[in-house]
TrEMBL record:
SUPFAM superfamilies: PUA domain-like (SSF88697). It holds the Pfam family LON_substr_bdg. Coiled coil: none annotated. This is LON peptidase substrate-binding domain-containing protein. The lineage of its organism: Bacteria, Pseudomonadati, Pseudomonadota, Gammaproteobacteria, Lysobacterales.
Length: 195
């Protein structure tokens, strides 16, 4: 079943459960934030394939993630800042641009991934993630130890934390098998090893 949601094309990939902080200044996105906050709705975040974040409507990737606003604040420059959290993944069937320049997508939501334990051959990835998150701090620094046993959670957190190119992150988002995602991330690891 298709559902129409507002889209916010960005130069970043949002993963389920992942944090997102945005600086809002264009009127179309101020409208989006107002409407979503008023109705408790989520908006869709898609990686920009062509175009830019500001100005003319950009061409979004066909797979994205919903974002639900969790906090508002005023930035030092006086602009609106929001914090949001990634939710469900979706596939865009079609888009249309409203007269205010806001892109709406007819989307089909993907089911949640099945709960799969991190297998022994990918145990190193959970250890690396735990060390990274301890070092970085932030929202995931103090999560329950059991989260590191969840293949989807570990894969999504590594995908957003490692310095991968945005198209690589998009590929990881589009994968539907958590173990295949971990295998792909393990394939990327050698490039991050110190000489």
């Amino acid at each position: 079943m298709l559902k129409a949601i507002p889209l916010f094309p960005l130069d970043t990939v949002l993963f389920p459960g992942g944090p997102l902080r945005l600086r809002i200044f264009e009127q179309r996105y101020l409208d989006l934030v107002r409407d979503c906050a008023r109705d408790g709705r989520a908006f869709g975040v898609c990686l920009i394939l062509e175009g830019r974040e500001a100005g003319e409507p950009a061409l979004p990737a066909a797979v994205g993630t919903t974002a639900r606003i969790t906090d508002f604040y005023t930035l030092p420059d006086g602009l609106l800042g929001i914090s949001a959290e990634g939710g469900e993944r979706f596939q865009v069937a079609s888009t249309r641009v409203r007269d205010n320049g806001l892109v709406y997508g007819e989307v089909r939501f993907w089911p949640d991934e099945p709960a799969v334990a991190v297998p022994p051959e990918h145990g190193l990835l959970a250890t690396i993630l735990e060390r990274l998150l301890d070092e970085i701090g932030g929202v995931f620094a103090k999560v329950e130890r059991t989260r590191y046993d969840d293949a989807s959670w570990v894969g999504f957190r590594l995908a957003e934390t490692l310095p991968l190119a945005q198209p690589e992150k998009q590929q990881l988002l589009q994968m539907t098998d958590p173990l295949q995602r971990l295998a792909r991330i393990q394939h990327y690891l050698p490039r991050f090893q110190r000489a």
